[in-house]
Amino acid sequence: MAAMKWWGWGLEGVEFTHADKPSLAPFIEEVLGLKVGPVTAAPPRLVDLPVPESALPEELRGALVHAVGDGLVSVDALDRVVHARGKSLRDLIRQRRGDFVRIPDVVVRPGSEAEVAEVLRVAIAADAIVIAFGGGSSISGSLEAPAGETRPVISLDLARLDKLLEIDGPSRLARAQAGVFGPHIEEQLGRQGYTLGHLPDSFTHSTLGGWIATRSSGMQSDRYGDIADLVKGLRMVTPSGTLVARAVPATSTGPSVRQMVLGSEGRLGIITEATVQVRRLPAQRTILGYLFPTFSDGLAAMRDIAESECSVSVTRVSDANETRFSFATRKRATLVDKVQSHALQAFLRRRLGYDVSQMALSFIGYEGSAGHVAAQRRAVGKIVKRHGGLCIGSGPGALYDQKKFDTPYIRDFLLDRGAAADVSETAMPWSRLTPVYDAVNAAAYAAFAEVGVRGYLMCHLSHSYHAGACLYFTFAFVPTPGGDILAEYDIVKSAIQQTFVDAGATVSHHHAVGTEHARWLEQDISAPGVKMLKALFDGTDPGRHLNPGKIV
Ligand SMILES: Cc1cc2nc3c(=O)[nH]c(=O)nc-3n(C[C@H](O)[C@H](O)[C@H](O)COP(=O)(O)OP(=O)(O)OC[C@H]3O[C@@H](n4cnc5c(N)ncnc54)[C@H](O)[C@@H]3O)c2cc1C
After folding, report:
1. Which ligand 1 atom is at minimum distance from the Cα of 200?
2. Does residue 429 come out as left (phi exceeding 0), alpha (psi in the -120 to 50 range) or beta?
3. Residue 455 CA from chain centroid, whole number
4. Cα-based torsion angle of the residue sequence 222, 226, 229, 233 in order, rounded to the nearest 10 degrees
5. Averaged confidence pLDDT in the chain
6. Euclidean distance between the first and the last CA atom of the chain, given in angstroms as a whole number
7. Ligand 1 centroid to 9 CA: how many Å?
8. Does the active-site annotation cover 224?
9. What is the pLDDT of residues 474-515, one digit of tens each?
10. Span from the CA of 208 to the centroid of ligand 1 (angstroms)
11. Where are the beta strands (DSSP E) in 293-419?
């Protein structure tokens, strides 16, 4: 798997374009006041930026080469810059500014668990720090070395650990190496008729180990569960040896060591492999589009689906702002599309009494045998109808399914034109959904006003559980003339995150803590909770050699 751009999302040469989406530029101009034209803030060339020299001691370099082999120890400037950070908005802005504070001195690529153990051993002996690197898609500042770190910094790139090792068919358990990327694990499982079913938006550029280390969640979590549900066993190299959590469906062995590794962000050790629950590839898989009169109606329908006996794979509903955005990103319409769209709008207004400006677009996914899918569609259809919703068929769902991994590129498209866009996500019980949504809207628009910008906030429900759901907010604004984009971004982002914890929601549902969310952690898990985590990290890694400064 090739490394992502050092300044943005995805591979060099792959970009988002508005050229084939005629409504997008007018929409952006209307909501942000940004005239979408040619690039005005292109990323600089790396050769023009001051990349700090590697300060890798010669003796440590020799030991690392001995551990993994010569071509797998890199002090190349581009390699070190790519591994310096993840893909949060703060990461991207500072990368583009050439603000390289403490980039790794070396990137090391082990090919086996034994090599990982040897790298960790020599790193600790040399008093160096080790930062595990999966796909580099972290959005929470989980990959950057602390600014004042004086010890050598090793980025441990796990991409060579990319194999599916075995499948226990009767148990539907698959053992795989931790550096395997999303498409590659699905391809290896698919050849034998299985799927993991874990599809985060970052799927193409993130790894099994990274998903575990951040407690990730994918869009099909309603059926497959979050990564925390999917991981049944794992192996992790720690300073005191290799931790083995054996793969069993459930266990009563004190506080769960497996759960402690989940979300540990490289602070407890290097995950080398995991045993995950897999399922047979479904005979049928479809995502249907629905419209609801309002976001509240859509949320109520999702809640009723979660409470019912229906078994769906995806539940997603966008608020009115996000629905408008989705429609604005539609490709150039044919005459037939236009006629159909006008007919649908007229039907919604006249026959169903919709106020089209408040309408909420929703996607619900179904998987399994033909009979199961048909039965679930019927059962869900009744719930949708009860909340005033309307099925608009499989076309929009298929389009969403094809394009979902392209969405991350839009952030770079906006940054290239001077605008900031980012996300904040949370989870809460069903009873708190609307209060949290309303409070975040009030807080975000107050923050836009404080900064003095015209901002836009949109939201969707992205994962449903029996007890509650995840709300995923996206916000964008054009910084004030001469203003500091990062300082203004901080005001908006902080207002949203603070509202989450004040309103009884969690600081993050699936993006982890890193450094971005660390200041709210105590409000979320309480002071004794933070003390317990500190004791766990200090006890496991007393020399603070493993990704120091993250989470707490
Ligand atoms: C545009 C975008 C969309 C995203 N969408 C989603 C989404 O839908 N769902 C979701 O859950 N997340 C999402 N994320 C966040 C991110 O993709 C996840 O956190 C992902 O799980 C990180 O995996 P990675 O392999 O890229 O890990 P990295 O970013 O490389 O690392 C993340 C953290 O895990 C640690 N780590 C990585 N591998 C190991 C290992 N083998 N052993 C120990 N520690 C390790 C690192 O040290 C670091 O602390 C998104 C991010 C972006 C930028």
Report:
1. 8
2. beta
3. 23
4. 140
5. 96
6. 31
7. 13
8. no
9. 999 999 999 999 999 999 999 999 999 999 999 999 999 999
10. 9
11. 314-318, 360-368, 390-393
